[in-house]
Amino acid sequence: MAQVQLQGIVKAYGALQVVHAIDLDIADGEFVVLVGPSGCGKSTTLRMIAGLEDISGGMLRIGDRVVNDLPPRDRNISMVFQNYALYPHMTVRENLGFSLKIAKRAEAEIAKAVTEAAEILSLTPLLERKPGQLSGGQRQRVAMGRAIVRHPDVFLFDEPLSNLDAKLRTQMRVEIKKLHQRLGTTIVYVTHDQVEAMTLADRIVIMRDGRIEQIGTPLEVFETPVNTFVATFIGSPPMNLLEGRITDGTVELADGTRLPIPPGHGAAEGRAVTFGVRADNIMPVGHALPPTAHMADVEMEVQLSEPLGTETLLFAMLAGTEVQAKMLNPRPVRLGERLRFQISLDKCHLFDAETGAALRV
Amino acid sequence: MASNAEHRLRKRLLRIAHLTGLFLAMSLICLPGLWIVLNSFRPTVEIMAKPPVWIPNSLNLDHYRAMFGGVGEGGVPVLTYFRNSLIISVTSTLVALLVGMAGGYAFARYRFKGKAALFVGLMATRAVPGVALSLPLFIIMARAGIIDTHFGLILTYVALNVPFTVWLIDGFFRQVPRELAEAAEIDGCTRWQAFWKVEFPVARAGIASAGIFAFLTSWNEYALASQLTRSVNSKTMPVGLLDFTSQFTLNWGGMCALAVLMIIPALVLTFLVQKHLIAGLTFGGVKG
Amino acid sequence: MSRLKLPPWLVLLLPAIIILMAVVLVPLVLSFYSSFTAYQLTRPDSLTKWIGTFNYRKAAGDANFWWAFGRTVLLLTIALNLEMLLGLGLAVMVSKVTTGQRLLRTAMMFPMMFSPVLVGFQFKFIFNDNVGLVNNALQSLGLTDVAIPWLVDGHLAMFSIIFAEIWTSTSVFAILILAGLYAIPQDPVEAAKVDGCTPWQSFRFVTLPFLMPFIYIAMAIRSLDVARAYDIVQIMTNGGPARRTELLWTLIGRTAYVDARMGYANAMGYIAILLSIFFTIYFFRKLTAARSELGMGV
Ligand SMILES: Nc1ncnc2c1ncn2[C@@H]1O[C@H](COP(=O)(O)OP(=O)(O)OP(=O)(O)O)[C@@H](O)[C@H]1O
Ligand SMILES: [Mg+2]
Which residues form the ABC transporter domain (chain A) (predicted)? Predict the structure, then answer.
C-alpha cells in the first residue's frame, strides 16, 4: 500500500498540452475520484500514473519512489479498463492468474490467490469460461478480480462501470465500496458520473481542460464549491445561477428583484456577481424547507412541474433565468401560476460574475 | 388478389433465374478444374481420342505412377520439384510472416509522419511485374552466385510476400484492442511479453491465414521462378510443369497429374482459412 | 543510454524495408541504369556502354511496343471491369442462397488456388482446337463440325486469354464483395424498403455505395498483381499468333531472354512498372476516398 503524489505533472502531445501541471497528494488507503467533463484529461492523468503514457513534465511518486520512468510492471499497480480488456483467449481462471504467472509465482500460490479473488467477487462458478461467454457485469467482475489478485499498491479504475446498465451499476458501486473497505488499498477512480463520485470518494478531484478546479471531500465540494464550474458540475440538478449586481448591500437581479448577500460571502458595491442556489434550498412557501438562520423569499412564475415521486421539481422564471426548485409535499400546480418561494440563504453562494470564483470572506 | 398472384409468380421466376444463374456460374468455375482432375486418371489415348470419349472407359493411376516413378515419358523428377517447392514455400512464408508481423504491428500500433505514404510505397513494390523484376534480379543474383539455389528464391519470395503480409497482419492487429496489451503490461509483462502472450495469440488465426496466403503465392509463382531456377537444384513445381512440354508435343495426362499434386495442398489450405483471409483484407482495407 | 535510438516503429519496419530494398529497389535501380546502356545478356561488358535515352526513344518509335502497350491497357480495362461486374453478380447470387453457402463460398474461391501457369496450361488444353474440351463439346453437340482455331486465330486467341484471365480473377472480386455484403448493416436497407424503394433502387442507392470500398480493395489487390496475366499468356499463346496477343510483359520477356537485349527490355520494363504502380496508387486513392465518404476511416 502506498501514497501517490503528483507534482506539477504535465502531459503534452507535441505542441498540444492536455494536462497542465497538476498537483495532487493521495494518502495511503485513500479513495480518490477524478471527475470532469469529457476530454478534460482524466484518463490521461490516470494513464500517466499507470505508466501507459509518458510523463512530459513534473514528478510522480508512488510510495516513496519516483516512478516517472518506470514501466507499468515495476509500479505495482493494477488497473481496470472501461472495456475491461480481458484476455479473450484465456479462461477466467487464466485471466485472474495471469499477472502472478508472469511474476513466476508458484502454482499453488497462484491457485490460492485466484480462488480467493473468485470467492470475493462470486466468480467461482465461472472460472472455466472464456470472457466471450460472460455477461457485461460478470466481465466487469473478472476485470476487478484480475486487479485484486496481485495485492497492488494502488488500484486504478478508468470509468469501470460506464458500460453497465443503471441497476448493475448501482450494484457494482456498492461492491467496489466494500472492496475498498475490505482491502484498504489506495484507489484512483475516474468517472463521468457524479453520483459515483459522491458515493465512492474519500476525496473528489474536479478537473477541467487539463487543470484541477477543486479537491475536497464530497461534502466540501458540494457545499463549498470554489467556482461556478464546480457548483454546476457537482449536484443534480445543477445549481441555479442568477446574474446580478451588488446594490445597497444586496444582490440586484436584472428585473430589479433583490436578494440578500448569503452569509459568509461578500463583495464590493457595484460588482457584477452570480448568485447560486441549489434546488434543494428553494421551495414554495409551506413545503417543508428546513428552516435555517437566514431566509429570503421571492415570487416566481411556475412554467413546468416534473413529479419524481417523493418530490416534485418545479421550473420557474426569475429575472429571465430558468430556476429549478423543489417541492416535497406534492400538490397540483397550474402552468403560469405565481408562487412565493423561500430560500435558505445559509446554503446559497456568491460568485464573481467574470471569473466565476466564489466570493467567500 | 390478382396482384398478389402476380407477385408470387414473379418471385418464383426470379428464384428460377437465380438458381439457374448460380448453377451456370458454378459450372464455369468448377468444370475446368474437374476436367483436369479427370484427365489425370485417363490414359493418353483416350484424352487424345477423336471423336472424343465422353464417358471414360477406364480410369487408372498410370500418370501418377509414371510421375512418382520418375521414369514416365521424359522422367520428370516430380518428387524433387515437390520438395523444392515445399522447402522454398515454407521457409519464405515463415520469414515473410515474421517480417510482416513486425511491420504490421508498427502500422497498427504506432502513429508517425508519412505513415500512409510508406504504406502505399510498400504496397507499390508488390506491383512490380515479375518479368520486369526478374531481369535485374537475375543479373544481381548471378553476380552473387545465388541463381538456382533455394536461398535466392526464398529471398525473392519473402520480398514478394512482405507487402501482403504487412497489410493483412496490420488489419488483424487493429482488431485487437490496444488496451489488451496495456492490461498485460500492468499485469507485469514487458512489451515483448505482452506481445507474445496476449496480442499474438489473439491475432493468431488471422496471422495464420496471412501465412497461408503467402504460402500459396510462393507455391504458385512462376514468372520469377522460371528465370531464377535452372535445374533440379531449385526448380519448383510450376516451372516443372513445363517439363511435360517439348517442342511439338505436350504430355497432357502427365501434366494433369502434376497439376493435381499442386492443387491439393492449395485446396486444403484455402479451405481452412477462407473466412479469416477475407476478414483480414477487409478489416485492414476498410478501416485503414 | 545515450546511444542512437531509432523510434520503435522504424525498428519494426526495418526488416521489411531492408528486404524490399534489397530484392526490389536495388534491382530496379540497376535496371533503370541498364536501360540507358546497350546491355546484352551474352556480353557482360556491354553494361558499361552508355547510350543515353536511346532505348527509350527506340521503344517510343517501336510499333510492336505500342501495340503491346495498347493491348495490355485494353486487356486490363476489359478484364478488371468484367471481373468486377461478374464478381458482383456472383457475390449477390451466393449471398442470397440460404443453404450450402459455405460450400458455395469455397467453390467460388477454387480458381484462386490455381497457379497462373497452371491456368495457362489448363486453358491451352481446353481451347486446343484438336482435343480441347470446348471444341469437343461443340462438335459433339453438333453446333459446328469444324475445329474452331481458338488459340490460332488472333481475335479468338485474345478472347481465350481474356476468358482465362477472368476465370482466375473473378473470384477475388466475388469473395471480397461477398464479405462486404455480409458486413452491410441491415438498418439502412430496411429503411429503404420501408421508404418505398424497389429492390433495384435499394441496391443501387444503399447497398452499392456501401460496397464501394470493398470493390476498391479488390481492385487494389488485383492491381498489385495484374502481371499474373503474363504467366497465362506466355503459356497459352506466348504472344502469338504473329504477335496478336503480345502484351508488354511477354514482349519484355522475349526481348530479354530470347533476344538477350537486357538494356532495351529494362527500358520497356520500366514503362510496364510505372503502368502497374499507376494502377495501384490510383486504386489506393479511390479506396481512401470511398472510405472517408462512408466515415469508416480513422
Ligand atoms: N494521442 C493524442 N494526441 C493528441 N491529443 C490527445 C491524444 N490522446 C488524448 N488527447 C487529448 O487529450 C485530452 C484529454 O484526453 P483524456 O482521454 O484524458 O480525456 P478524458 O477526461 O478521459 O475524457 P473522457 O471522459 O471522454 O474519457 C483530450 O482533449 C484528447 O483529445
Ligand atoms: Mg477517458
Answer: 4-234
